[in-house]
């Protein structure tokens, strides 16, 4: 492979998109695990109870808010 091809803008753009996709997948996995452990206390049925659904919604919102706050803080530090 031509070493200059490793520096092409298209390849760098593709790699950046893949990194972002991997980070999003990791975050969704962590969010799912954390919120599931917190909100689902028994064996789940075919539907979530209203309290489980509310808990999952609140947990996911808070997780996303905190993640955004952390990203902004790191951006401000740079």
UniProtKB/TrEMBL annotation:
One of its GO terms (cellular component) is mitochondrial inner membrane. Residues 13-76 form the Tim10-like domain. It is found in: Mitochondrion inner membrane. Keywords: Chaperone, Disulfide bond, Membrane, Mitochondrion, Mitochondrion inner membrane, Protein transport, Translocation, Transport. GO terms for biological process: protein transport. Its main location: mitochondrion. The twin CX3C motif contains 4 conserved Cys residues that form 2 disulfide bonds in the mitochondrial intermembrane space. Heterohexamer. Mitochondrial intermembrane chaperone that participates in the import and insertion of some multi-pass transmembrane proteins into the mitochondrial inner membrane. Also required for the transfer of beta-barrel precursors from the TOM complex to the sorting and assembly machinery (SAM complex) of the outer membrane. Acts as a chaperone-like protein that protects the hydrophobic precursors from aggregation and guide them through the mitochondrial intermembrane space. This is Mitochondrial import inner membrane translocase subunit. It comes from Anisodus tanguticus. The lineage of its organism: Eukaryota, Viridiplantae, Streptophyta, Embryophyta, Tracheophyta.
